[in-house]
Amino acid sequence: MTRKAASCAPFGKGLYKTPHAIRLDPEGNVWTVDAGTSTVLKFSPKGEKLLEIDVGGLPEPAVSAFRGAFLGTTDIAFAQKGRIFISDGYANARVVEYTADGKKVREWGSAGTGPGQFHLPHSLVVDEDNILYVADRENGRIEEFDLDGKFLRELANLGRTYSLKLGANGTLWAGVQPLNEPPGSPGWLVKLDRKTGQILGYVPVTERAGLHTVEDAGEGQPMTDIGNRVVWFKRRSFRSVQ
Prior knowledge:
The chain is mainly beta. It has one helix at 60-65, and strands at residues 19-24, 30-34, 39-43, 49-54, 73-78, 84-88, 94-98, 104-108, 121-126, 132-136, 141-145, 151-155, 160-166, 171-177, 187-193, 199-205, 210-216, 222-226, 229-232, 239-240. A hairpin with a 5-residue loop joins strand 1 (19-24) and strand 2. The protein has one helix and 20 strands.
């Protein structure tokens, strides 16, 4: 018997300038991040708009410098007790925490290369141990924090780090590209051990315009975007370094 996938009417049309990230919270609600307007929208699974967060705080000199489509927020992550974390990386260099109903709690970070500083925080995730991982894109690293913004450590020398996704059994997937090549160059989907920070293996991504997102399809099979396509890599593509 052939099963048909459930269909859902599209929603959100006309609400975005530069949609940059989409995540599901633990309750199945859909959150979207718009890098063009620096806003975050929450929808029910059926597409009903539930909440809008205007992250704002765009410094005027940076706004003038970023005249294109990318100005503000880049990604969103969720922690226990409804805590929400948003990376604000294009005009700012910070992580901002909000409550479940959209009230700002705190922010941290500044431009730079030191511990707790950022050069375009581009993606972030929170694991079951309440560790927040931030892809510090142009510094070529992942920084780790506790949920109050205390710097814990960095996983350095990874390359231009675009995307993060928690994997099974204490692993972390990252989409990376060489820092010495232009943005959008071919790169890798890298699998790391969250405890040790060691690289367990990788999947080569030889096409351009990819790696902006990463998803874990299970059993060591990552997915990423390449242009306007989603590409699913089977387990045989994975190259272990152990």
